[in-house]
């Protein structure tokens, strides 16, 4: 079946037809064929994250990515703990919102959307505030596409002996992350981002020595990461409650296709080519990237509105959709921007066609004004 448009968004994203096709079968959740798939996914995720099986476990959780983040925050931070959050965009702020709703003591270091959280400031705050037990931040802040300094931040957190929680939703599987070597305690991502599955669950690569301490801590029944882990381990791949079977099967296929592509390095290379081509051609067409290339991720790019009073996002969006591309609105309060994702089953020819369409749109607008 022909797709009406290509999704140039940071998830859900365009998946291959082979990933969609494996969803045409129904699975029994407690049958061993299905549970074997779940177990295989869990161990493949550990391999992807370079997280040794002796130290780490991968726990899958129903729901979108936020459910996974909420499960970690709500399960990991004890009643007398304090969470420090680094926020330079909407997803960092969402972690703060989770802590607020769950009544978890927290403190947030806020940064502008084009500003990187600094390791030195984090070090100073951890020296001064002894109550902090856990630190959470976003790796690729999808609000802008900025790539936060993962290694440097985790190193400071671990130097202080604190628990490191990383929302790597839009980066995991799209760029190598050495979870074990870095010492990350919890890394969260979801099915429908760089691994290129369909939406329906999130997963957490968790340090077992931390998670084992979390029995009875969760502030929610369904988002109890510890219990979810126990059932998945003790019943060899069984989920606590009904699992998204078709989504799980599709995710397994997506993992195989990631390996076929040559693994995370090759996928990262494709996304990087996509993103660099996008910026080059969009800038030739007259659009300016909002962030400098030095802080950019290969996953999603923020562009400023062109300097033409007749330009509106809505009309531009409708034009591109007609041409077969769906792009993303901006998420910044202080700048007029839109976003284009370069992840999913999207290739350089697609990006070139998109940029041609965008260029022709601007040319027409300029002629009319
Ligand atoms: C996509 C995403 C999430 C999760 O969003 P959901 O809508 O719950 O899937 C969280 N953090 C980041 C950085 C993301 O890109």
Structural write-up:
With 369 residues, the chain is α/β, with parallel strands linked by helices. It has 2 domains: 6-10 and 263-368, Aspartate Aminotransferase, domain 1, CATH 3.90.1150; 24-260, Type I PLP-dependent aspartate aminotransferase-like (Major domain) (Aspartate Aminotransferase, domain 2). The chain has 13 helices and 15 strands. It has helices spanning 17-21, 32-48, 65-76, 90-101, 119-128, 150-159, 179-182, 208-211, 225-234, 245-261, 264-285, 313-323, 348-368, and strands at residues 6-7, 56-62, 83-87, 106-110, 134-138, 140-141, 146-147, 163-167, 186-190, 201-207, 288-289, 300-304, 325-326, 328-329, 337-341. The strands form 4 sheets. It has a 7-stranded mixed β-sheet with strand order 2-10-9-8-5-3-4, sandwiched between helices. Strands 11-12-15-14 form a 4-stranded antiparallel β-sheet, covered by helices on one side. A hairpin with a 7-residue loop joins strand 14 (328-329) and strand 15. Helix 5 (119-128) packs parallel to helix 6 (150-159). The radius of gyration is 21 Å and the shape is globular. Residues 10-11, 64-66, 91, 138, 142, 167, 169-170, 190 line the site of pyridoxal-5'-phosphate.
């Amino acid at each position: 079946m022909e797709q009406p448009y290509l999704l140039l968004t940071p998830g859900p994203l365009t998946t291959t037809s082979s990933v969609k096709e494996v969803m045409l079968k129904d699975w029994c959740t407690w049958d061993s064929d299905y549970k074997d798939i779940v177990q295989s996914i869990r161990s493949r995720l550990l391999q992807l994250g370079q997280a040794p099986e002796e130290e780490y476990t991968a726990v899958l959780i129903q729901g979108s990515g936020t459910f996974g983040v909420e499960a970690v925050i709500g399960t990991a931070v004890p009643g007398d703990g304090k969470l420090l959050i680094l926020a330079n965009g909407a997803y960092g702020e969402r972690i703060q919102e989770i802590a607020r709703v769950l009544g978890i003591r927290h403190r947030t270091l806020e940064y502008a959307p084009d500003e990187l959280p600094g390791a030195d400031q984090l070090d100073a705050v951890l020296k001064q505030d002894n109550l902090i037990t856990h630190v959470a931040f976003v790796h690729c802040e999808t609000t802008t596409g900025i790539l936060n300094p993962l290694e440097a931040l985790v190193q400071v957190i671990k130097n202080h002996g604190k628990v490191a929680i990383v929302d790597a939703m839009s980066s995991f599987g799209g760029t190598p992350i050495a979870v074990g070597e870095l010492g990350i305690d919890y890394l969260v991502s979801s099915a429908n981002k760089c691994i290129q599955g369909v939406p329906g669950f999130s997963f957490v690569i968790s340090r077992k020595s931390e998670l084992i301490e979390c029995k009875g801590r969760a502030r929610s029944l369904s988002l109890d990461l510890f219990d979810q882990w126990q059932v998945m381990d003790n019943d060899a791949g069984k989920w606590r409650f009904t699992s998204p079977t078709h989504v799980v099967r599709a995710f397994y296929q997506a993992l195989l296709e990631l390996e076929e592509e040559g693994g995370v390095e090759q996928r990262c290379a494709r996304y990087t080519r996509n993103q660099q081509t996008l910026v080059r051609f969009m800038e030739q067409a007259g659009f300016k990237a909002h962030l400098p290339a030095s802080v950019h991720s290969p996953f999603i790019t923020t562009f400023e509105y062109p300097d033409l009073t007749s330009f509106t996002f809505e009309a531009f969006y409708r034009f591109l959709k007609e041409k077969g591309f769906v792009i993303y609105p901006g998420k910044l309060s202080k700048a007029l921007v839109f976003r284009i994702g370069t992840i999913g089953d999207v290739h350089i020819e697609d990006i070139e066609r998109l940029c041609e369409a965008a260029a022709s749109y601007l040319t027409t607008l300029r002629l009319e004004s």
